[in-house]
Write a structure and sequence with these properties.
Layout (H helix, E strand, L loop, with lengths): L2 E9 L8 E6 L2 H10 L9 E6 L39 E12 L5 E17 L6 E6 L8 H23 L13 H11 L4 H8 L4 H19 L19
Parallel strand pairs: 1-3
Antiparallel strand pairs: 1-6, 2-5, 3-4, 4-5, 5-6
Helix pairs in contact: 2-3, 2-5, 3-5
């Protein structure tokens, strides 16, 4: 088992390999993380792990709140994640490689990262200025029939996109060349589907590419059928998540 220790960034969303992740960093714990990552030479990857939050808050309260307006907010790297942060996070996440870390004049950061590979969360360390985690690197096995399944998913995905485009009266796929490598297809489609975090998390932690593609084929067919009866739907960029407010 290959393990690695990396800074840990919990989010209310799922990061997939190949997905672009913009971040607006303003909490001190994550500012400390970025300052530490900036110490890494530019020619080396500046990596951190992203996990989806199962139970907790992406942004810790910064002022007295409800129901007790005098209660002071939690402080520290694990604020908002309870006494055992490991229980607050989904166990499978994704390593992010920060291509850009730009510090603003007010000390906040603008970050642009890309998901690289899946990892399993083994333990969380709360002793430093930001969370770190011991992680097991996960391989991506193709499974049985991944190639044929990818072709079917791409057909269904194009139909899904046409339905979305029709609902918005615009083209969502113009100028976008879709991949044909099964694992890349599976992650692209998982990122683009309009689904909640538990569903996306299920896709991320699928045991192999073929299993993920089978699940996506069912989801695409169901979603395409639903879109027929809806007047409009929001668009989604295929390789990008909305900017996280940290």
């Amino acid at each position: 088992m290959t393990t690695v220790r990396l800074p840990l960034f919990p989010l209310n969303s799922v990061l997939f390999p190949g997905l672009v992740l913009p971040l607006n960093i303003f909490e001190e714990r994550y500012r400390a993380m970025m300052r530490d990552l900036l110490k890494t030479p530019e020619e080396e990857p500046r990596r951190f792990a992203v996990v989806a939050i199962r139970d907790g808050h992406e942004v810790a309260p910064s002022a007295p709140g409800m129901p007790d307006p005098t209660a002071q907010p939690e402080r520290g790297p694990a604020a908002g994640f309870g006494p055992d942060p490991l229980k607050s996070f989904h166990r499978v996440g994704c390593v992010a490689d920060a291509a850009t870390i730009r510090e603003r004049a007010n000390g906040t950061f603008e970050v642009l990262a890309t998901g690289t590979n899946r990892v399993r969360l083994l333990s969380v360390d709360t002793s430093g200025p930001f969370l770190t985690a011991e992680l097991e690197e996960l391989s991506e096995d193709p499974g049985d029939g991944a190639g044929a399944l990818a072709e079917g998913v791409l057909r269904a995905f194009r139909q899904y996109q046409k339905r979305l485009a029709g609902a918005r009266e615009r083209s969502l796929t113009a100028g976008i060349e879709l991949p044909d490598e099964p694992s890349v297809v599976s992650y692209l489609v998982a990122a683009a589907l309009m689904h909640d975090t538990p569903t996306k998390q299920r896709l991320l932690q699928a045991p192999d590419t073929a299993s993920r593609l089978r699940d996506e084929l069912k989801l695409l067919r169901a979603e395409t059928a639903i879109i027929r009866n809806l007047p409009s739907l929001p668009a989604a960029e295929l390789t990008r998540t909305p900017t996280s407010l940290n």
